[in-house]
Task: inverse folding
């Protein structure tokens, strides 16, 4: 996929650049958190490059789900503070999103200054991709740059709508994501899927199933497969399994039964949840990784928010780190945050900033944010 990218011909001293970033990072006690290979960290090179060209940079992101109205607990101020620390440069947060007063503040900014408007989802027009809201965002700038791969699967005003009103380009982060995700894997190629939402994983299993050599399934998404195969599943757990998920599992099994590797000893906790994979499954999955040359991983093997649900995900991360694969990609915010805290991200050739966007792209879907930037 070829995307439009900006050059020095597109900017001059003082050009107002609307830079869409993905600053939807965890907040704890009013503080934002992002690791060294997180979404904020990976957007920094684009900001540095734009500043070097003398652009006035208008950062824009969503944060959480405020429901289309102003909610102070979803203010982007903590995100701006953390990003400013990482950049070593001040970021001025404007008190609003659109309108004459915001436009005046931007016009009065110095070349190279970095500003940030408030949470895009404070306005219902963002998620509705409202043309009037998109046009108002465009009034703030001269050029639009999308550096937020994590939202490129959303047809939102700041992702797709705004491109109709400004010269629009892909940022370095988006360009790199596409390049890495498009890279043909070397074989044996291993797909590792976990987490709890099978509905979001079925398309990628069906699209990539024919290109993989083995598919490892852990976490709650493995339960419908076990049920479809009449494997032992506690009665208390059967009640929690969606019938549509079982039908989805049956479709995947019909096509790729010979490639699927399921947990042999899924750990079910006292609440009837698939909290982790057991020791036999860890050994089985690790052996598959040792034979692989490429790995794509999305979703943890257990409930990593709890101490008892982390062993399987850690073991998979260690096996990948040890293997030194030709290609190894991981995506999904929770998994990345956990793997970085465990110092296990060093085994990956690419850490994707998109969870849903990565899955959508690899499933062969057309992403609105990318389609708007095609050459």
Result:
């Amino acid at each position: 996929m070829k995307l439009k990218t900006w050059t020095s011909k597109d900017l001059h001293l003082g050009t107002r650049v609307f830079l869409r970033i993905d600053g939807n990072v965890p907040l704890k006690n009013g503080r934002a958190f992002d690791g060294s290979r997180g979404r904020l960290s990976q957007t920094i090179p684009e900001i540095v490059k734009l500043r070097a060209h003398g652009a006035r940079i208008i950062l824009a992101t969503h944060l959480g789900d405020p429901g289309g109205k102003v909610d102070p607990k979803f203010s982007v101020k903590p995100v701006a503070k953390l990003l400013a620390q990482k950049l070593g440069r001040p970021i001025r947060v404007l008190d609003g999103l659109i309108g004459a007063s915001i436009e005046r503040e931007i016009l009065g900014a110095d070349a190279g200054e970095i500003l940030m408007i408030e949470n895009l989802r404070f306005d219902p027009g963002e998620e509705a991709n409202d043309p009037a809201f998109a046009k108002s965002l465009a009034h703030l700038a001269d050029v639009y740059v999308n550096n937020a791969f994590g939202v490129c699967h959303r047809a939102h005003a700041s992702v797709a709508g705004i491109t109709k009103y400004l010269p629009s380009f892909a940022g370095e982060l988006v360009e790199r994501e596409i390049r890495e995700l498009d890279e043909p894997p070397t074989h044996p190629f291993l797909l590792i899927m976990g987490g709890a939402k099978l509905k979001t994983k079925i398309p990628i299993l069906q699209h990539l199933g024919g290109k993989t050599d083995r598919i490892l399934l852990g976490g709650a998404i493995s339960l419908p497969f076990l049920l479809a195969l009449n494997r032992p599943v506690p009665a208390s757990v059967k009640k929690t399994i969606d019938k549509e998920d079982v039908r989805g599992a049956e479709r995947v099994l019909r096509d790729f039964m010979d490639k699927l590797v399921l947990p042999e000893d899924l750990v079910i906790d006292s609440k009837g949840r698939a909290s982790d994979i057991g020791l036999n499954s860890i050994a089985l999955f690790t052996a598959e990784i040792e034979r692989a040359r490429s790995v794509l991983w999305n979703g943890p093997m257990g409930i990593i928010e709890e101490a008892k649900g982390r062993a399987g995900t850690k073991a998979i991360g260690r096996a990948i780190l040890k293997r030194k694969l030709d290609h190894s990609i991981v995506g999904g915010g929770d998994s990345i945050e956990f793997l970085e805290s465990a110092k296990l991200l060093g085994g990956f050739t690419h850490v994707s900033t998109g969870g849903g966007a990565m899955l959508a792209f690899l499933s062969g879907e057309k992403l609105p944010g990318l389609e708007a930037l095609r050459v």
Remarks:
- The radius of gyration is 22 Å.
- The mean pLDDT is 95.
- The first strand starts at residue 16 and ends at 20.
